[in-house]
Design goal:
eight-stranded mixed β-sheet; alpha+beta; five-stranded antiparallel β-sheet; Peptidoglycan synthesis regulatory factor (PBP3), Domain 2; about 25% helix
Length: about 375
């Protein structure tokens, strides 16, 4: 049997352009992530402990979304408001303005939490799901650890003052990313600009979403504000524009104005100073490679995951993507056989590599056909 080996490499050179080298925002701690690639574009003391304030409510909603998906909770289910929950609405905190004894649907409570930032709605939902807010906070922390929030502990469902309710902007980013990725339909609640609650004993009350970036016309569609006197102003936000999504989290803004302007500045900087490069989509052939003595002359190769890379426009550098394999690949080939490696380098440095997998089966030619093909190769060099 004749064996022929050669190294095949497909290289794609991607050039980028200039952008600002120095950048900062007026926040105590902040982070910016590209959603598709997962790459961090900017960070400032991103692992410094913070009091997450009402950004805590993202996890409160996430727990409910998970229960709904699993069939353990329904948007139409109703919970009876306790005095404990009502007390928050009468204590000057941001509220949905529910009353003791009200029967409120899960969907209305979620809107009260996400849009109106109601602390009373958080407690009502927490008690309805777990019996007590303390038990619900245990569920929240367990979920946080499960999704990689390594420096977070939730002590309540709303984020009101509690020295044990702590997180980091990196962890809030991880939580926001997870919610958007895993619950895209439910995430739409975070883009709603107002919520009207037909309250007991009074006229319906309409409250606007507290996220100031929803009212600016540049693609922001979530996610949650926060404020505590000790922490000052905070915001987790996400923008979607022209196929790109960025997630920003900042805490320790000095004012509402700074929270709005500096968060918008961070998102805009990420959109205008970086290029997103799609290298490969999961379960789609990237390229075809030659096959030796198979019923097909080529076979597609693919990777198991979507691959995106972010390239800063600030540097005139290039990204190199190579498909490396020894071939032609000899048949038979089974789908998902590892045929080589996809390697990504930046400025000559290896960034990542992935297994190149066969996209389909390729059967071996019968004995006669293999003989003919081998003779042709010996005479003509034709594989």
């Amino acid at each position: 049997m004749i064996k022929l080996k050669f190294l095949y490499a497909l290289s794609i050179i991607l050039f980028t352009f200039n952008a600002n080298a120095a950048f900062d925002i007026k926040a105590r701690t902040a982070i910016l992530q590209d959603f598709l690639s997962g790459e961090i574009l900017y960070e400032k003391d991103a692992d410094k402990s913070i009091y997450p304030a009402s950004m805590t409510k993202i996890m409160t909603a996430l727990i409910a979304f998970e229960l709904i998906r699993n069939g353990d909770l329904d948007l139409d289910d109703k919970f009876i408001v306790s005095e404990n929950a009502w007390r928050l609405s009468s204590a000057g905190y941001s509220s949905m303005f529910i009353m003791v004894g009200d029967e409120v649907s899960v969907e209305n409570l979620l809107k009260g939490i996400i849009v109106a930032s109601g602390n009373d709605a958080c407690v009502a939902l927490a008690e309805g799901i777990a019996g007590t807010e303390e038990e619900f906070a245990i569920l929240m922390t367990a979920k946080a650890k499960e999704i990689g929030m390594e420096n977070t502990n939730f002590a309540n469902s709303s984020g009101i003052n509690n020295t044990e309710n702590v997180s980091t902007v990196r962890d809030i980013m991880i939580m926001s990313n997870y919610l958007i990725k895993e619950y895209p339909d439910d995430y739409k609640y975070f883009s709603e600009k107002e919520f009207t609650w037909d309250r007991t004993g009074g006229d319906p009350i309409t409250q606007g979403n507290r996220n100031p970036l929803l009212y600016k016309n540049f693609g922001v569609d979530g996610i949650k504000t926060g404020y505590l006197a000790i922490e000052r102003y905070s915001l987790a936000s996400s923008v979607y524009r022209k196929g790109r999504r960025l997630i920003a989290v900042g805490s320790g803004f000095d004012s509402k104005k700074d929270r709005s302007m500096e968060s918008a500045k961070l998102l805009t900087w990420g959109l205008t100073n970086f290029d997103l490069i799609e290298i490969g989509k999961s379960n789609e052939p990237i390229e075809s490679v030659d096959v030796w003595l198979g019923k097909k002359d080529t076979v597609g190769v693919y990777v198991k995951t979507d691959i995106y890379k972010i390239i800063p426009k600030a540097r005139k550098k290039f990204l190199k993507v190579s498909l490396n394999y020894t071939g032609p690949i000899q048949a038979p080939i089974k789908k998902d056989d590892i045929l080589g490696k996809l390697k990504i380098t930046y400025k000559g440095k290896l960034l990542e590599e992935y297994d190149l997998l066969a996209f389909e089966d390729v059967k071996k030619l019968n004995v006669f056909s293999r003989l003919v093909k081998s003779i042709n190769f010996l005479i003509w060099g034709d594989v």
